[in-house]
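Structure tokens please, single chain.
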Amino acid sequence: MIMLLSDEHEALRATVEEFAQKEVAPVIGDLYIKERFPYDLVKTMGEMGLFGLPVPEEFGGMGGDYVALCVALEELGRVDQSVAITLEAGVSLGIMPILRFGSDEQQQRWLPDLAAGRTLGAFGLTEAGGGSDAGATRTTAKLDGGSTEHADRGWVINGTKAFITNSGTDITSLVTVTAVTDRGEDGKKEISAILVPSGTPGFTVAPSYSKVGWNASDTHELAFDDCRVPEENLVGQRGRGYAQFLSILDEGRVAIAALSTGAAQGCVDESLRYAREREAFGATIGTYQGIQFKIAEMEARTVCARLAWHDAAAKMAAGRPFKKEAAVAKLVSSNAAMDNARDATQIFGGYGFMNEYPVARHYRDSKILEIGEGTSEVQKILIARHLGL
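Here you go.
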């Protein structure tokens, strides 16, 4: 199923492209070097309705679909990944757990501000000792307060989370945390998802990480020390947290694939521009076959990545199974982004090693695309399973 963009999606794509080129590109280099979060850009994206693209109008969203989000992410990813991942995580990890599984009260309370970009949500899944083994969750949440009629009955959370995006900004309003809420006699964990508002006593956000890339995005370690939230902050069904976050990650992988495709395309864009301007040995370097072949391979990777995420998104939009397609898209597109960043840096030569050039940012940023929201190795496992191996 290869998806052609509708007129509505194409109009959105053009709008986001203009925003990325005219408003993101001129300022992101300075923000990146100074490791500052792009609050003004986030505010503008909120006003444009980007955070609310897949959110129903009743909650202040645009009433669109997940495909629209992916279209926007590809265009943002062409210019800068820090801004793109802020939107991706804000929607797929901040909004979608509440939209998909939250109670009516949770949706009414939290979604309007999240959809407008006035606040950001985060998803606390990864732990330092877990990584790809998400089932190894050690964070616990225990009900305290007596019977179900007890007014003070609530969840007491203890544990830590690592590498959590959008968790420590000035506008972060909540983190949805996965925690072990019980153990069976066989020792099997019952994992649930619980909403923790920012500023809750016992919830501590550590200083921002010093990262290789995505330096204008927000990433923190979180700690929960007898952090108490009301019983009704349970998101979805008790004991279904593991299944819930797996479904959230399937959708998120399509979004990351779109972002990665944008990064791959951005490397093609910059390489073409440079190859047409840079002269060596009496001619522009784009006239040399060695450069032509390298850029042709970059373009081929990008086209394949785009087809892959379109295929996954089309199946998702049609309500068909898309887990394998999402894994393929994530694998192919993240590889394309990393390979294109490497080749673009080589084409730029010494200038490609300078932070003032976008290809240097893509080179630093793209590696995490092969790791976050499921490593390349995890994607290969998922694909093999769906092939019956």
